[in-house]
Amino acid sequence: MSALDDTDRNLLAEVAHGMPLVAAPYEEIASRLGIDEDDVIRRLERLSRDGVIKRLGLVVRHRALGYKANAMVVWDVPDAGIDDLGEKLAAYDFVTLCYQRPRRLPQWPFNLFCMVHGKDRETVRRQIDMLNNETGIGAYPNAVLFSRQCFKQCGARYTVDKPTADIIPLDPVDRKVINGLQGGFPISENPYADAAAGLDITEEALIRRIEHLCAAGVLSRFGPMFNAEKLGGDVTLAAMAVPDDVYEQVAERINAHPEVAHNYARDHKLNMWFVLSVEQPERIGEVIAEIESETGLPVFNMPKQEEYYVGLRVEV
Amino acid sequence: MLPFDEIDRRIVQETQDGLPLVAQPYHAVAEILGLSPDEVIARMRRMLDSGVIRRIGAVPNHYRLGVRANGMSVWDVDDDAIADAGAEVGALEFVSHCYRRPRHLPDWPYNLFAMVHGRRRDEVEVQVAEIARLLGNRARRHEILYSTRILKKTGLRLGA
Q1: The domain B7-50: what is its CATH number?
Q2: A178–B52 CB contact, under 8 Å
Q3: Which of A2-16, A22-36, A73-87, B44-58 has the highest mean pLDDT?
């Protein structure tokens, strides 16, 4: 199987919750991704062929099944207990498929899959609740991916109450952890236990969730965020206009400097924007001079002169 | 500001990639550094109070959360008006970062930067239109620079 590139991942994220309900859905997706329609179709064909989309329950063939609702439910369970849990799930009549699959980190952290079929979405939801509650598997991170025809029956509502996240959908506990813990994590003897109490989950469940969200790339990391300026250092934003034919080499040269904390490509004549974060303030000027001499290109230094607002949170 | 000493620095180095995911993470850090847990806890509290630590917790990845359109809106605002204008723009709920930065004429005429985010570009554009309305004729022109690719994202790193 060929590796997924960024465009594949963006495409999967676009279709993960269903196709756009417009006359030309591929064209619509293509315009959102900034690629052409043929490219979308070719990629979907390849992803289907490779089994990536089939695994996500987005195979076109499913539509032919008609009126039944079906969902793929996936869990991230400890490898040690997977056989036992898998057998328990498989014992239910409405579970038509149940298997263990390797995780593909960071894109896909789940290792236990099953298909649940029912009359309608409500029934399927009840059946999934039954699995989660009766077997205890609901304690582990999980996601429900309704297949395409169910999305159509349910209309756009599905996307309104769920964020169009990535191919990693978030469950309510994930959201509670992300929204509740973007700051204020305690500095105490047993901080996970203290934080878990506030979120109404167990200490072990919280630790496993954070591990899962970090492995899935939903969290860049979990821990303290330091302020370079307060450490006696300095931070600046810098921009360059880099010719297309040397763009990759220049990015590589710049990124090789450990002081470069972030670097983003942006669609402008100034097309490379990076943040320098240094321990000794005088290093800002030195690193800029080094980059200018290495690349032969001018660097526009844009240090902040005034900070009006710095937000620390993103709500999911 | 309280002095930031070599022991603080080692604590930063040990936790900059994340806190250990064990029941007693500060004890784990203490053990690695050969310090007592009480000292690590006291020092981290002090760093949090002094602002060396901005916050402790989850650092979300916008892209993974479906926030794919990340627009840096940049504005050419009258120098006389920028203090008020910056404060007003920074107070908008959807603006995540807002700074005054220097112009580089003639290449770069913009002096006010406001980051706005959305699932798609049209969501970002609606927000930018609101900023434009708010600034009125205090801004001569503006642009939105969307990020098209993350070339590097490591955050602050203290060397060994």
Answers
A1: 1.10.10
A2: no
A3: B44-58
